[in-house]
Write a structure and sequence with these properties.
Layout lengths: L15 H17 L1 E5 L13 E3 L1 H4 L19 H8 L6 H28 L4 H7 L20 E7 L19 H13 L2 E7 L15 E6 L7 H9 L13 E2 L20 E3 L8 H7 L3 E3 L10 E11 L7 E10 L8 E7 L11 E7 L8 E9 L5 E3 L4 E4 L2 E8 L6 E8 L3 E5 L17 H12 L7 E4 L7 E2 L11 H8 L3 H7 L24 E2 L13 E4 L9 E5 L2 E2 L23 E4 L8 H5 L4 H17 L4 E3 L22 H16 L5 E7 L12 E3 L2 H8 L1 H10 L3 E4 L3 E2 L2 E2 L4 H11 L5 E3 L13 H7 L9 H13 L4 H16 L6
Helix pairs in contact: 1-7, 1-13, 3-7, 4-5, 10-20, 13-14, 14-16
Bound molecules: beta-D-glucopyranose.
Beta-D-glucopyranose (BGC) binds next to loops.
Length: 831
């Protein structure tokens, strides 16, 4: 077992890893920027011309979200700083200075409101924090003299969100605030050319952009991490060609989203969330139902042009359990700047059996940076299994008979059918059992069958003229899931070790280390490494079982920036120190003892990372995070977050990748591969599953059909588990069809372990078991959820009681301890 040392440095000097990782963060931010509009080729801007820069995010660029999705970085480069460093002359230094004062005042007022709730109203600090989402002030109106030296203005619109609270369909959030409206109006009146930068975690209403002809360019920069300002400047100056693509549909109006009126608080019912749109989430809805959108899935412009030529379709590994399709394309840069292109393959599946979305993303790839005139050939491979749908009555994954249209393009809207796959007969590829039966009524949306048939007919009429593949059930191997195998699969050596532990040790090992405050802290209960969310129990250290530290993500490692050591011991600090970079602390700032500094890199948020559509880049980000995990003695990163963007108002969407399960799964797999390439480090894919809203996140019941659950909400997890074997999974707070996710045997054991062969540890989200008898520590063990985090004494008592009563079997407790022991043994806590 490795000896623990105090983590971090005694000096404030910038470390080599920080410099290297800021470069990775900058590259990821650059590639995640999406150019949405660029009329008259306004961008890139001419560096020799001054620019007027406005908006909350100009000087106070939002690098990421709040709560556990935050990172306490050393410093972040704002767009203002980035632009100045790139050589832009900014004429609005005064405006930005004035804004900084308003911002500081607003922050103080916000802090006071939070503490007032905590002190006077009796809220826990975390709840008070969650109640008060910080709203950026708008700033003052621009003045005429600011337009004297330039005809070009850039306006940065910013939004911030975070856990425990959904966004609101109101001014200052989904819409502009009245003050923002006035400022933008005035800017568009004063300047000839206006660039809008969206420094937001997810969609905002962009109707206002239609009112101004001179609002010529829109750049979605998302929440781009600590190097965001530099990355934005790189693209504005034309040093980089934008190559990001949207991972969500941006509707014309909020009301266009299929669950607009019922989502979360919208129908005044945060208890029951009916997933009535079924599988029609995101583009699957808009595309299938023919609803026009402002910016579609996969969309994004470039400074150069590309030609994508379809080159062929083939199959691989027929006759095995994992046959694949390969689509070859040649991408040529036909423009005059170097750049990267994203090629997307969509498949339209037959509609004669189960009704379906009109098309789905089946695969994608990004080119390298191509010089003007240069061509690259790409083969995009995807499993035939990716073309199946889930049939609840079979039950299993079925591949239906008929034509599958294969479309290729650089966005969903531009993809054109260029090949076909004909399946001669219907087949069940994977036979499963049913899971998560509905307990409440649910009526799912029905697709417009005639309209879909009409659209399919357009290419079906010519399908014989195009290259095609013919597949028959003989080419595939049917798989049948055997349930109940989880006991046989337990690692033997670890089980022998478990048998030598006392019952008390076993009970303690399935919760986090319960420290001085009984571990009740949300997200900062780790004691060895300050700011870590929790650590595993040290009760078997004498038997050489190490303690693992777990730290949040997903935008980097979340630790406290500094801490004190006195008399050889870490001074444990309150929760407030671990959030908002310590801004909420009320101490005097005076400290005794030796100070240690822990600077971690803030990478772009999950959505921004996914907008790169670049899996190799996500692996690189993962490797950088893992290097920091090694430096700070962290074993498990509580990331990536991979819930589906079901509605744009979900408060945590920025942490997650996309509305599409394939893209989410691929991104999670890539970042996991990166992290786990560092021996002994692991990811924790979360929140498993259907954690799609934040209001009442611990009590809301996701009412969802089995098919939708499997095809949309579990699919990304399935891909990540099968492709990258993450070290762990975190269950979610919500219920799924009446059963808490943390106590849900169907998803933890039947699905993750029996169907996907997941071998790692499953843990709860923080404090899931604190709120009553519906979700208990013993319930976790029964479900196959191994680790209750961060753990309280009540969890131990509950397990003891249920063991005595016989409602919890010893073998279920041991099974969880065994998996934890195996994970600890394989961790970076040993030489
Ligand atoms: C969040 C998790 C996070 C955990 C630990 C919870 O509030 O939902 O995503 O990993 O806290 O900080």
């Amino acid at each position: 077992m490795k000896q623990r040392t105090f983590t971090g440095t005694r000096t404030q000097k910038m470390q080599a890893y920080e410099i290297a990782h800021r470069e990775v963060a900058r590259e990821a931010a650059q590639e995640g920027l999406v150019l949405l509009k660029n009329e008259n080729q306004l961008l890139p801007l001419d560096l020799s011309k001054p620019v007027a820069l406005y908006g909350a995010g100009a000087g106070k660029t939002i690098k990421g979200g709040t709560g556990s999705g935050d990172v306490n970085e050393r410093y972040s480069v704002s767009i203002y700083e980035g632009m100045k460093q790139a050589g832009f002359q900014i004429t609005t230094g005064n405006w930005i200075g004035d804004f900084a004062e308003r911002y500081a005042a607003a922050r103080e007022a916000w802090k006071a409101a939070i503490w007032s709730d905590a002190d006077r109203e009796g809220y826990e600090l975390f709840d008070a924090y969650a109640r008060h989402q910080f709203e950026m002030p708008a700033g003052r109106l621009p003045e005429a003299y600011e337009a004297e030296r330039t005809d070009t203005a850039v306006y940065v619109l910013s939004r911030i969100a975070g856990e425990a609270r959904d966004r609101r369909e109101q001014g200052g959030d989904y819409y502009l605030s009245p003050e923002e409206e006035k400022i933008i109006e005035e800017i568009c009146r004063l300047f000839r050319h206006v660039v809008l930068i969206l420094n937001v975690g997810g969609p905002v209403d962009l109707s206002f952009t239609d009112s101004f002809e001179n609002l010529e360019a829109i750049l979605m920069v998302s929440q781009p991490g600590c190097e965001g300002g530099n990355a934005v400047a790189d693209v504005l100056a034309g040093n980089r060609t934008p190559s990001g693509r949207l991972t969500d549909t941006w509707a014309f109006h909020y009301a266009d989203y299929p669950n607009a009126q019922t989502f979360s608080h919208r129908n005044n019912d945060v208890e029951t969330e009916r997933y009535e749109e079924g599988i029609y989430v995101g583009y699957r809805y808009f595309d299938t139902f023919g609803i026009p959108v402002r910016y579609g899935f996969g969309y994004g412009l470039s400074y150069t042009d590309f030609e994508i030529a379809f080159h062929g379709i083939s199959h691989y590994d027929l006759g095995t359990e994992h046959p694949e399709i390969g689509v070859t394309v040649r991408v040529k840069n036909t423009g005059s700047r170097k750049g990267k292109e994203v090629v997307q393959v969509y498949v339209s599946c037959p509609q004669d059996g189960l009704e379906k979305e009109y098309q789905r993303l089946a695969g994608f790839a990004k080119t390298r940076e191509l010089e003007p005139g240069e061509t690259q050939e790409l083969e995009i491979r995807f499993p035939v299994y990716g073309l199946t749908s889930y049939h609840e009555e079979v039950p299993g994954w079925v591949l239906e008979q008929g034509w599958y249209g294969v479309a290729v393009g650089n966005s969903l809207m531009d993809a054109a059918v260029c090949a076909g796959i004909y399946m001669t007969d219907h087949m069940v590829m994977v036979k499963t059992g049913n899971i998560c039966p509905l307990q409440k009524s649910l009526e799912e949306k029905k697709a417009p069958a005639e309209e879909i048939a009409r659209r399919r007919q357009v290419w079906l009429d010519h399908v014989e003229e195009r290259p095609s593949l013919i597949l028959s059930p003989k080419d595939m191997k049917e798989q049948e899931i055997v349930y109940g195998t989880e006991y046989e699969k337990l690692p033997k050596k670890a089980m022998e070790f478990v048998e030598q532990l006392t019952l008390e040790q076993q009970i303690r090992l399935v919760t986090g280390d319960i420290g001085q405050d009984q571990g009740g802290n949300l997200g900062s209960a780790g004691m060895y490494v300050p700011g870590t969310a929790a650590q595993t129990s040290g009760c078997a250290m004498e038997q050489d079982l190490a303690v693992l530290s777990l730290a949040d993500g997903p935008a980097g490692l979340r630790l406290t920036k500094d801490y004190c050591v006195a008399d050889g011991k870490i001074i444990q600090e309150p929760f407030e120190k671990s959030i908002e970079g310590g801004f909420l602390s009320r101490g005097t700032g005076e400290r005794t003892g030796e100070i240690y500094y822990q600077y971690c890199t803030a990478f772009p948020v999950g959505t921004a990372l996914a907008q790169t559509w670049n899996t190799a880049l996500l692996q690189k980000v993962g490797r950088a995070v893992a290097e920091e995990m090694q430096i700070f003695q962290v074993t498990l990163w509580l990331a990536p977050g991979m819930n589906i963007h079901r509605n744009p108002l979900c408060g945590r969407n920025f942490e997650y990748f996309s509305e599409d399960p394939l893209l989410s799964g691929k991104m999670a797999a890539a970042i996991t591969e990166g992290v786990q390439s560092e021996k002994g480090c692991g990811t924790t894919i979360k929140h498993f599953a259907c954690n799609n809203q934040e209001d009442n996140r611990m009590g809301s019941d996701s009412v969802v059909s089995e098919r939708t659950l499997r095809e949309i909400y579990l699919k990304g997890f399935e891909i990540a588990v099968k492709e990258a074997k993450p070290m762990s999974i975190m269950t979610s707070y919500n219920l799924i069809n009446g059963v808490h996710a943390a106590n849900n045997h169907d998803i933890c054991t039947k699905v993750a372990r029996n169907e996907w062969d997941f071998q790692g540890v499953i843990m709860t989200d923080w404090t899931t078991t604190h709120w009553g008898e519906d979700c208990t520590a013993a319930g976790c063990m029964r479900a196959g959820n191994d680790l209750v985090m961060p753990g309280i004494l009540q969890d131990h008592e509950n397990i003891r009681r249920e063991l005595e009563a016989g409602t919890l079997e010893q073998k279920d407790l041991k099974k969880s301890v065994c998996r934890l022991v195996d994970t600890v043994w394989n961790s970076n806590m040993y030489e």
